[in-house]
Amino acid sequence: MSANDDVRRGRGESMIREAAARYESVDASRVNEWLADFLPSAPAAVLDVGAGSGRDAAWLASLGYDVVAVEPDRVMREEMRRWHPDSHLELISDRLPDMAKTFRSGLSFDFILVNAVWMFVAPGVRERAFRKLVTLLKPRGVIALTLREGPMEAGRGMHPVSVQEIEQLARRHGAYVERVSEDVDFLGRSRITWKQIVVRLPDDGTGALPLVRRVVLNDNKSSTYKLALLRVLCRIANGTPGFARETGEHVNVPLGIAALYWIRLYLPLLLRDMPQNPTNRYGFVRLGFANKALDQLRDTAEYDLRVGMHVGADRRGAVHRALLDACDTIARMPATYMTYADGRPILPAAPRRSRLPTELVLNEAYFASFGTLSVPTHLWRALQRYSVWIEPALVEEWIGLTTRYARSQGRTLDEAELRQAMRWSEPEREVAVARNRALALLEGGQLFCVWTGNRLRGRNIDIDHCFPWSAWPCDDLWNLLPAQRTVNQHRKREFLPDDSTLRGASDRIMDWWESAYGSESVLDERFRLEALARLPTLDRSNFDLADIFDAMSLQRLRLARDQRIPEWNGIAD
Length: 573
Hints:
Structural class: alpha/beta
């Protein structure tokens, strides 16, 4: 970079810092007074898009909201931290129209603020940008926008805006403009005024939930395949969303992981002779994907077929063949026959003939080698938000269908056994790897409780699930943290650490990750693969421990908001 480039960059940074100071010179409560009737009851999840210096985001946080601030400019993010060092803000480097990291987080919001931002969104991508905002919004949620009216500033990338355009975009996306008002420019520019627009999303607004209800309750089903595919997607959306990739109107899921979860759902049913269509009377008979390869896996525990598993040479061929057969069945059957009213497939599949690798690892690259399954974005979001309610409905319908098939064959099934077979196989609590690493570190030096900072000793050490097992079963290495036994068992227990507690422990958590796994290549690979699968905001090609912590913090917010897990304040305790 030349000296002139350095000068130009320095001037640009100086201008951004001056702009931040101007924004901060205006009282946020005064600028945002018009929002009083539309802000949700706290606590609620709020998104500030184009947060700038953080003035509005910090004000919203002071009202008791969980605030995610999106700001693409590095210097402005630095200014946000400088102006508001004590505000509890989740900060994401992201921008319209893609909002890729925010979307991957799985979070949904009660309120979205787009203040003095829309004029920087090019007209050609506004349809996409608005769709992303609506997709991130909860039912009955609000998008509040301010539109600048007056002369545009040269060189700042501004474009004309209008209330009419927002009204049209709202109608196209199942929303409506609830109020339009006008105010002066609070920086004192006489030729500039601001339109203030409130857009509301009625009910679900996307049609995803009625679509799911139709498939569950009304579609003709000659087998359980449609229910199975929806349940598979619930599991992926909730458990491994990091493998999904958004492309326009759809989210692409690796077909291989859908097949893996498909096998895990069906194996316990087939081993117990639970019929999956009217002619499937005995186990693996008359099911397209249930053949010799799957039969060779009958002694394999469902959870042994897990993400990150290295498959031994003795089972490598059977696993690969079983996945190919499951992919073929998914693509030919439910992905083809689950359709909209006009006959278009809801979940189009693009299978590929994956080749058996020399070393078989159940990771993202391997799953992607089987092709893709495309999920409409609005349906994917619904599965992320509501799988805790959708999946039980799928299970009940599946149980009813299996029972009817058995009755048509003159058989009576044991309902308790059927329900047991329908349960998703979760791992047993398994903390041995983390505990062994903790004990090894104790032998070589010191180890500290992530929550209190107190020194740990062999007799008082526990391995704590940061996000409680009872609400979110996860034995990923990043979720297992060393803690004092009394703190883990008597104070934190089955609670979710609140925002201030997790932030207060950030340095100790990252120190633990580095010392426990960073020097062990096999463990480091597992640690990073598990983080990529579970924490969808990570940049798959470039992330460090701080990025994992930030993604973990966003996941904490999602669990707090979507599942309402009781929180623990370790600082006040």
